[in-house]
Design a protein that fits this description.
It is built from 6 helices and 7 strands; from the N terminus they run βααβββαβαββαα. It is of the alpha+beta class. It has a 7-stranded mixed β-sheet with strand order 1-2-3-4-5-7-6, sandwiched between helices. Strand 6 and strand 7 form a beta hairpin. The N and C termini lie far apart (54 Å).
Length: 185
């Protein structure tokens, strides 16, 4: 089976995503935080969003022929950080390397856009995603408890090899060498 990968226009991507997301993640649940907000909180949230600078993003799909079999999307979080928000592959197409290929293409795209850190958040039990990301070169850089999703692990990838080496020092996997010491202020 031949799989093609295609970056899509945002509107068409999210129409497809919203139609299929709950089928893919049916065993999980997330809380609809917007349903508990007051009208004032909703209005302030809307104002904040409208004032936010239009972030850079990508929307990627994996296709066999005209059929979309997986997706991935991400968006800018700061001048330096790119957030890989969500990826999924339909069950009958899993275990064929599709997710790994989408991850690689997403990292390449975010790197081309100039981001220094590419990160994602995942449920701590999501080994189907955590293992490929760790093998690719992502590192565990944090944990958080999010009311909507529960306990999450934060994974970060640094396209700049030197920055990754410095992260390795910070997480304790190696000691600083002479060149590292030159960077200390």
């Amino acid at each position: 089976m031949k799989i093609d990968y295609e970056f899509m226009e945002k509107k068409a991507f999210f129409e497809f995503f919203n139609q299929h997301r709950y089928n893919i993640f049916e065993a999980d649940f997330d809380f609809r935080i917007e349903n508990i907000l007051s009208d004032e909180e909703k209005e302030k949230r809307k104002e904040n969003w409208q004032q936010y600078i239009k972030p850079k993003s990508y929307q990627l799909v994996a296709k066999t022929g005209d059929k979309i079999v997986g997706w991935s999307f991400g968006m800018q979080q700061s001048p330096e950080d790119f957030y890989m928000v969500n990826s999924a592959v339909f069950p009958e197409y899993r275990q064929q390397g599709i997710y790994t290929e989408m991850m690689q293409k997403g990292v390449e795209k975010a790197t081309e856009m100039g981001f220094q850190r590419i990160f994602s958040r995942h449920k701590m039990s999501n080994n189907a995603i955590l293992i490929p990301k760790l093998k690719f070169g992502f590192a565990i850089t944090g944990f958080e408890v999010v009311p909507r999703f529960g306990t999450m692990v934060v994974l970060s990838y640094y396209p700049n090899k030197r920055r990754r080496e410095l992260l390795d020092i910070r997480i304790g996997s190696r000691k600083p060498d002479e060149e590292d010491m030159k960077l200390i202020m």
